[in-house]
Amino acid sequence: xFLLNLQSKVPIYEQILxxxxxxxxxxxxxxxxxxxxxRQLALDNGINPNTVARAYAMLEEKGYVYNLPKKGVxxxxxxSKDTGKDEMIRSVLKPLKDNGTTKDEIMHVLDELYPED
Length: 117
Hints:
- The chain is elongated.
- The chain has two domains: 12-75, Arc Repressor Mutant, subunit A, CATH 1.10.10.10; 81-113, no CATH class.
- Strands 1-2 form a two-stranded antiparallel sheet.
- The protein is mainly alpha-helical.
- It is built from five helices and two strands, in the order αααββαα.
- 15% of the residues are buried.
């Protein structure tokens, strides 16, 4: 189900996180669907269970899933599409900001991409 690139510069937990969000947005995973257990997903992909737990915790924090102790992790009711877009925009802009890109530089590119009519 998950295609993880262990050689990628993108951390594995982020790969898991983004794939689950895409599955939810595409309707592959629906509210109430149970995600694989942390242990099972880690075993199936040869990764550390803490990596999976980190991805699941971030998904829960963002409202995509909820955890029922001793029962598992389940897909939550869909959140607004606008929230998903906001998260996607943030995921693109944050690394730019962290690498020193200024707001003016970003605005310059945005002005080129979205010219006024």
